[in-house]
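Example (one chain per record):
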Amino acid sequence: MHDYRIVLCKGGKVYFFYYFPVGLDIRVRKAPTITIYLAAVCVITFLIYRYAPYGGAWNLSNLVFLPARPTLATSLSHLFLHAGYLHLAGNMVYLVLFGRVIEDRFGPGRFFAIFGLSAMAGAWTHALLTRAFSPEFIMYGVIGASGATSGLLGAYLVRFYFTGINVAYWIFMPLQGVNRAGRSRVPGLLAIPVWFIYQGAYTLMQFGSGAMSVAYSVHIGGFASGIVLALLFGALSAARSERPLSRARGHVEKAEWFAAQGEFLNYLHLKPDDGEVHAEAARVFLCGAEKGRARFHYAEAVSSLLKTGRRGDAETLFMEAMRSIEGFAMPEKEHLGLACGMERSLKYAGALKAYGNFMTRYPDSREVPFVLLRMAGIHERRFGRPDGAISCYAALVEGYPGDAWADFAMAELERLGRGRIALGGRDG
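Predicted structure:
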């Protein structure tokens, strides 16, 4: 269990400072499938190990890592076993908290590599140090995901060195009348190195002390492995790219719109295809009353989402842009495709507005008669507004009398019983 704790005893009184991570300043874009799967396996295996370790088809003690007889298999399998509920809970908090962001940025494959290889590195580090400095403990088995989650901490430090960690803390100093608890944000560059220093100190004190209830050296090996793997996976370069985005969001939280705009532009210079960040930038430019730039970033955001197959998100953002900027329009082909897509997905109000913006932006387009027909259909069949349909049909007949749809529009006007009135009394 990875906690941050200092305990001192004096005159029969106990003084301690305890803090534990409860949140990160990182947004996760995808569901952490592998993280959830690993956590579920750890919980299930723990319950079996605790209440039915031996069965007809299994003996879970074979999964324990023994420094006296280390194997590659047990250096990995031991991470799924835990000694108690607190041991399990601590590691699962770290797995879910840090694992989800590592999986999101590194991808499932690399995340699993960091998790598994760090567990193995931690186990073998412990075996080597135990053989060298405390051979009396060589028959003590090692279980728990601490090495693996320490590796996640190491990878997090490299990939997200610019972020903060939200921690819950408790300070207890009875003689001074201090008993305080709360939450605070601690820079990751401070919190994680402090944790590592304590793990190193505990490791040094442990060997030769005649007691070993926690294998702190596993944390050391796992943490180092996580750092090395993250560097090999290019995490430092990715962190430098994402740092402006983190700063931009920090400025947004403080309503510092112009500072946020600059940081968003710095990030998008490096990652021009990030549709979600283009959308964030558009909103910030709106807050700064710069509708021209907001229009550009909304268009880039919608286009990026379409390119990645996220049509539903693109349509939602397209409607947001139309609400925020009068007459907002995309390039002709994309705009018409979005309008038709919204009509097919029953977003009739949005589709009608999109068709109207198309008419305003592209009045000379060859698709205008088709757009007028679609608008007429929505007015009549979806909103029960025959007058709106009549207006669209009349505009088609009068503006495009030679179009293939003109006869159809005239027939619809006659059907609605308003043909002659809408056309000013002409026979057509």
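Caption: The radius of gyration is 31 Å.
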